[in-house]
Specification:
Number of domains: 1
Number of helices: 4
Shape: globular
CATH architecture: Roll
Radius of gyration: 17 Å
Strand content: 35-45%
Distance between the termini: 50 Å
Number of strands: 12
Helix content: 10-25%
Largest sheet: 7 strands, antiparallel
CATH superfamily: Electron Transport, Fmn-binding Protein, Chain A
Structural class: alpha+beta
CATH class: Mainly Beta
Strand order of the largest sheet: 3-2-6-9-10-5-4
CATH topology: Pnp Oxidase, Chain A
C-alpha cells in the first residue's frame, strides 16, 4: 500500500473508531532524496531561513469531537479548487491535534485578522487549553468551532489526506463560508514575526 493509501486508511480508521486515543501520531519518516555520497542534504536551519521569506496569512483550523473543541494555528493553508470547492492545509505528522480533526471528519478554517496575533500564539502552544476564554459558535454546516472576531471562515468536510514528507496534506470540501466586509487587514507571518498589510 502506498503512502496515499496509508493516509486514507488512517482517516477511515479514525472516523470508525470515533476516539482520538485510538491512533498514535505517525512517526517522523526517514527522508532522503539522494544518497549521502551524491550531495549533502539541505540544512534544516537554512531551509527555514530561506522559506521564512515567503509571507503568508495565518489561520486557526478547528474541529469538534467527542472531547470538545480542538484546533491549531496554521499558516500552510490554501485554496485548491473552485469546482468542486476545495481547500487544503498541511499539518505535522506528529501533531496531537490532527487525530482529533481526522476523527471528527470536519474542520473550520478561521482566517485571522490584524491584531489577532495573541489568539494565534495561544493556539500554537501544545498541550494547553487553547479554548480557555475564547468565544466561538458552531459553524452552520459541520458544527466545527467558528471563532469570534475572525474576519473569514471556511467550513469543510475532510475528503482526502496525502503524505508530504514529515507533514500530511489535508484536502477539505467547502460546505459553507463567509467573510466580514470592512473587518480590517489580514494577520501576516514573515521571517518568524507577525505583521500587518499596509498599502
Amino acid at each position: 500500500m502506498g503512502h496515499a493509501g496509508m493516509a486514507a486508511t488512517a482517516v477511515r480508521h479514525l472516523r470508525a473508531a470515533g476516539s482520538p486515543t485510538a491512533v498514535e501520531p505517525l512517526p517522523r519518516p526517514a527522508l532522503r532524496a539522494v544518497r549521502e555520497d551524491e550531495r549533502p542534504p539541505v540544512d534544516p536551519a537554512e531551509f527555514r531561513r530561506v522559506l521564512g521569506h515567503f509571507a503568508s496569512g495565518v489561520t486557526i483550523v478547528t474541529a469538534l469531537d467527542a472531547d470538545g473543541p480542538t484546533g491549531f494555528a496554521c499558516q500552510s493553508f490554501a485554496s485548491l479548487s473552485l469546482d468542486p470547492p476545495l481547500v487544503a492545509f498541511m499539518v505535522a505528522r506528529t501533531s496531537t491535534t490532527w487525530p482529533r480533526i481526522a476523527a471528527a471528519g470536519t474542520f473550520c478554517v478561521n482566517v485571522l485578522g490584524a491584531g489577532q496575533d495573541e489568539l494565534c500564539r495561544s493556539f500554537a502552544v501544545s498541550g494547553a487549553d487553547k479554548f480557555a476564554g475564547v468565544a466561538w459558535d458552531p459553524a452552520p454546516a459541520t458544527g466545527s468551532p467558528r471563532l469570534a472576531g475572525a474576519p473569514a471562515w471556511i467550513d469543510c468536510t475532510v475528503t482526502t489526506v496525502h503524505t508530504g514528507g514529515d507533514h500530511l496534506i489535508v484536502v477539505g470540501r467547502v460546505e459553507g463560508l463567509d467573510a466580514t466586509e470592512g473587518a480590517g487587514g489580514p494577520l501576516l507571518f514573515h521571517r518568524g514575526r507577525f505583521g500587518r498589510f499596509s498599502g
